[in-house]
Write a structure and sequence with these properties.
By secondary structure, the protein is an alpha/beta fold. The protein has 12 helices and 12 strands. The strands form 2 sheets. A 6-stranded mixed β-sheet has the order 1-9-8-10-7-11, with helices on both faces. The chain has a 6-stranded mixed β-sheet with strand order 2-4-3-5-12-6, with helices on both faces. Helix 2 runs antiparallel to helix 12.
């Protein structure tokens, strides 16, 4: 039976991660509040750490969750300064509604999908790819809610393109965001999950499982965009972080995590 599993409310919908020096910032320290797609967690933690080395005066607080959930919250003026989405549509809609600084829209990364299974799984995902989902032993397949998460929309697009959707539709388990999808797959609640490559190449998923990278041309490009919100408490800090993310160091970190514009797969040449 098709299921949708989610949390209710901001405190339950998203996981909170507070960067070095964030929270109750020391006197004189500035705080940047970032709403970021859940798929960015591992990469953005490294970006924040590198940014803090060049801008120790700016504490960075990052809240992770589904891009669609953040969009709905931003329409109600949620207390964020910078929105980093896993697509470009939500940030563009924020711009169109006049809720962001003019000319602040930017594209900072392009994502990839991977099919992930636990290491002990009998499914030969490396050989069979998506076709492994047809195996009768596969009872549940975790994907992100396509109504809220761009990676969920891309996952459904792949299933339809490969002719698998009708065969597995009644076995899909929807997570509110990709972090929940990873939890379902890693815990065994699902036999596998269609996840962002940036998550499966990072610890702990890389050590706990095996994966197959979905060809980039099997779905529409997963471009990641962002905007600076008009009610930002410290616009200068937000612009500085934006510049760092788009700069050489920020882009190098994203590329190492499978978020490069050239679709580089970490661990390969």
């Amino acid at each position: 039976m098709k299921r949708s599993v989610g949390w209710v409310g901001l405190a339950l919908v998203v996981g909170l991660w507070v960067g070095p020096g964030a929270g109750s910032a020391p006197h004189g320290e500035r705080t940047l509040r970032v709403a970021a797609a859940a798929s960015l967690r591992h990469a953005l933690e490294e970006v924040v750490s590198a940014f803090r080395k060049v801008r120790p005066d700016v504490a960075v607080e990052v809240t992770y969750g589904a891009s669609g959930t953040f969009y709905a919250q931003i329409l109600n003026r949620a207390p964020f300064d910078l929105f980093l989405s896993a697509d470009v549509d939500y940030p563009r809609q924020v711009m169109e509604r006049g809720l962001a600084f003019p000319d602040s829209f930017f594209v900072y990364a392009t994502g990839r999908l991977a099919l992930w299974v636990r290491r002990e799984s009998p499914l030969e995902v490396e050989k069979a790819g998506m076709e492994v989902l047809r195996h009768p032993s596969v009872r549940h397949i975790a994907v992100a809610n396509p109504r809220l998460a761009p990676y969920g929309r891309a996952a459904v697009e792949v299933l339809r393109r490969t002719g698998l959707y009708e065969a597995v539709a009644d076995r899909l388990v929807y997570g509110e965001n990709v972090n929940q999808v990873a939890q379902f797959a890693e815990s065994g609640a699902a036999d596998g999950g269609i996840l962002p490559l940036s998550m499966v190449v990072a610890s702990p998923l890389r050590g706990a499982g095996r994966f197959w990278v979905v060809p980039a041309d099997w779905h529409s490009p997963i471009e990641h965009g962002g905007v600076l919100l008009k009610w930002a408490r410290d616009p200068a800090a937000a612009w500085a972080f934006r510049a760092f993310l788009l700069g050489e160091r920020g882009q190098a970190i994203l590329s190492r995590h499978g978020l490069g514009a050239r679709h580089h797969v970490p661990g390969t040449r």
